[in-house]
Amino acid sequence: MTAAQSAPAAWPRPSAPLRSRVVYAAAHVVPVVGSDTTPGGRVDIDWDATLGYRRDIWSYGLGVADAMDTAQRGMGLDWPAAKELVERSSADARAVGGAIACGAGTDQLDLATLPEGERGLEAVLAAYREQLEVVTGAGATVILMASRALAKTARSADDYLRVYGTLLDECPSPVVLHWLGPMFDPALTGYWGSTDVPTATDTVLQLIERNTAKVDGIKVSLLDAAHEKDLRARLPEGVRLYTGDDYNYPELVVGDGTAHSDALLGIFAAIYPVASAAVQALDAGDDRRAHDLLASTQELARHVFEPPTFHYKTGIAFLSWLNGRQPGFSLVGGLHAGRSVPHLVTLHRLAAEAGLLVDPDLAEHRLSAYLLTQGVGA
After folding, report:
1. Which residues pair with 265 in a beta bridge?
2. If we measure between CA atoms, which residue out of 273, 224, 276, 277 comes closest to residue 246?
3. Do residues 226 and 242 lie in contact, with contact meaning Cβ atoms separated by under 8 Å?
């Protein structure tokens, strides 16, 4: 065991459902070892490892947010594979009594051939409807994902209000809206009709105020705690703010005693035992311990999500592999190559310091094997 490692923490699983926060971990998918993971290759998912990972998250009392950007929607995971993921994961959730929310988007559309103007907006609506039918049919909560196709087609905030307003009117139950910033996906620059965040925020609030009964909450991933707090204070009563801020989640989730955010976070797929312990502390009225627990993982999270932020999935998969949750270190679409060797070595150290290595000896062995293949020490 290296000096950086500490003994694995015994993170307690909850004995009752978590109460004080609604918390989802956005989970990744695991490809079959030896399958074609080159960009554009056929998606071949290791279902045992992929679903087993979700069962472990559920065992800690967290919900799973599936078929999201963490699962590489539009970044290696195509719509047919995402559809199967939604159906399989939702069935598993029912079997174990776990909470699940799944992304419905428009990634079956080819942006290169997407029509402009009215025809383009109608194509976006049709694509959303197809995916909404799958998610609602699977029994999952809908996350209405940000759409690259809508970002390309919309010419004004009114186009966003029209498309989302139509979909919300048609949805049978409240959904989670999804505001993903360009640091996570540059194709979403100018979402909600403006690159000016305050202007875009006004559009989002207008949409929510018109459709409050159909909006469970909004996930915001802009990595701006001050903006999130401001938006949170302006939301209609009963509409949740699900933080997607993988930098500042301790202060946002714990809150200030009067207001807090719920959570739908990619980093919670890496730190879910600690996240569970923190919400258990909140349930017990111990806000300070909850904050200290989440803060103990903050350096790791900021490292995993450092720019270029959209490569964060590499770190999620690497930690999963170090912990024996998947047989090989790989991601669909080849995104396991998104980070450098020094970055992943540091990730190992930070995970160890946070007590997040399930079996430090296994993690050390796998790290050594990885370094050997990269020529370190050769």
Report:
1. 25
2. 224
3. no
- pLDDT tens, 108-141? 999 999 999 999 999 999 999 999 999 999 999 9
pLDDT at 7: 63
Token pair of 301, please? Answer: 């999270």
- CA–CA gap between residue 99 and residue 86 (Å, rounded): 13
Q: Which residues contact 31 (CB under 8 A, 6 or more apart)?
A: 37, 43, 44, 45, 46, 328, 330, 331, 332
Which tokens in the block code for residue 323? Answer: 């912990």
Q: Is the pTM of this model over 0.85?
A: yes
DSSP 8-state assignment for residue 116: P
- Strand intervals (E) in the chain: 23-26, 63-66, 100-104, 141-144, 175-180, 215-221, 240-243, 262-265
Q: Is the pLDDT of residue 5 over 60?
A: no
DSSP class of 36: -
Distance CA 207, CA 85 (A): 29
CA distances from 346 to 27, 90, 289, 322 (A): 22, 35, 26, 13
Tokens 């079956």 identify what position? 108
